[in-house]
Amino acid sequence: MRYDLVIFDNDGVLVDSEPIANRLLAEYLTELGFPTTIEDSYRDFMGAAAHAVHDVVAERFAGATLPPTFDEDFHARVFAAFQRQLTPVAGAAELLRLVRAAGIPYCVASSAHHEWIRTAHRKTGLDVFFGDAQLFSAQDVGRGKPAPDLFLHAARQMGVEPGRCVVLEDSPLGVQAANAAGMDVFGYAALTPKERLAAATGLFDDLSAVPQLLGLD
């Protein structure tokens, strides 16, 4: 099927940020007295909006709260690490170039804040593929994944019916959100075990497989 809009998740699909962000998040929460492993972080927070960290800490640690500046401090740590370590996912630029050349509209819909998305794109050189009108964040809708709001907002702003959209996602929350939005979704099983993405329309483990899934080969 040829789609009218390709919606990319950002972290883990276009930029290789998940190992960096989840390691730093686990370290920071542990430092604050909330013991968290990187495996915990992947399981509980991958693909989730920022408020999920506060919600999980409150639930797991008897109503505990994080410092008022937690989000800003965490983002500062991540952005500093991005400058040293962040790279694009292998094949991301080539895939974006192919989708653009095929004339298929595309965008990013990410649980991360706009500043996070732009910082990651500038560092990896992927900013050349995206204008502001192609970047959508959970900030824009209030409810992040697994709610469908973000994907529906992106489709509406891009002028495409949900049933004509396809989402590329690497998290179970993202797959759940795409399904709830009535969109096809292909799960990127690189960091996430395939069984956790079983609800996706299809699976891939390398971006080089995506053109065939999109009918572009």
How many separate helices? 9
- Percent range of helical residues: 40-55%
Domain module tally: 2
Strand content: 5-15%
> What do the pLDDT scores average to?
95
- The CATH topology of the largest domain corresponds to Rossmann fold
Runs with pLDDT <50, length 5+?
A: none
Order of helices and strands: EHHHHHEHEHEHEEH
Radius of gyration: 17 Å
Name of the CATH class of the largest domain: Alpha Beta
Alpha carbon gap, first and last residue:
12 Å
Structural class: alpha/beta
- What strand order characterises the main sheet? 3-2-1-4-5-6
Shape: globular
Structure, briefly:
By secondary structure, the protein is α/β, with parallel strands linked by helices. Helices cover 42% and strands 12% of the residues. The protein has two domains: 139 residues, 3-Layer(aba) Sandwich (Rossmann fold); 68 residues, Orthogonal Bundle (DNA polymerase, domain 1), CATH 1.10.150.240.
Task: Walk me through what this model shows.
The structure is a single chain. The protein is α/β, with parallel strands linked by helices and 217 residues long. The protein has two domains: 5-16 and 87-213, Rossmann fold, CATH 3.40.50; 18-85, DNA polymerase, domain 1, CATH 1.10.150. It is 42% helix and 12% strand. The protein is built from nine helices and six strands, in the order βαααααβαβαβαββα. It has helices at residues 18-31, 38-45, 51-60, 70-85, 92-101, 114-124, 149-158, 172-180, 210-213, and strands spanning 5-8, 106-110, 135-137, 165-169, 184-188, 202-204. The protein has a six-stranded parallel β-sheet with strand order 3-2-1-4-5-6, with helices on one face. Helix 1 packs across helix 2 (38-45) and helix 1 (18-31) crosses helix 4. The radius of gyration is 17 Å and the shape is globular. The N and C termini lie close together (12 Å).
